[in-house]
Amino acid sequence: MIIFWLAALVIALSIHEYAHARLADELGDPTPRLAGRLTLNPLAHFDFIGTLALFFIHFGWGKPVRIDPFNLRHPRRDEALIALAGPVSNLVTALAAAILFRLLNGLAFSFWITPTAMLLEATVILNLSLGLFNLIPLPPLDGSKILFGLLPAPLAANLEESLQYYSLIILLIILFLPLPGGGTIVDVLLGPFLSFISSLLLGVPAII
Hints:
The chain is mainly alpha-helical. The chain has one domain. The chain has 8 helices and no strands. The mean pLDDT is 89.
């Protein structure tokens, strides 16, 4: 099971970071391309600390894609679009994996208990989780850059300045502070929704 989860995580992170890099390049910033990030090779997106964190605190990350806003034609809008590309790519990947799961499951009654099915299911769940979690509007998550791009410039600047002091603390609280009824804030916020969408996409009870 661990192998399936790790494989699915590698897929999700690689696609997420590649999507950032690809759209940045399309919008005129060659920085990710020059840094070797226009690839689905997981090694290009590997972050040592993020990987260690995954094993020890069950929360990790890939190497952030660096961009230079001065290369963008419309910096605020384009930065928001580049940020959005990551979560959208994960949601599209989850949908594609779910469609493949459904097609293969229709060919064989016992498919849903095979290793391929387990990998596809893990791919659906992890891509949904990564995509939705990154939409939370707290730095350094993608949702914050999307929010700043949508708000008027003065308000966005003030909010960004305020959040830079507290966002990490807030993020740690919603990730790790245990609630009286069990779980964490992020479990309560995203858990039921993720479970419902995953079951809806896959059409079978969870096996992982």
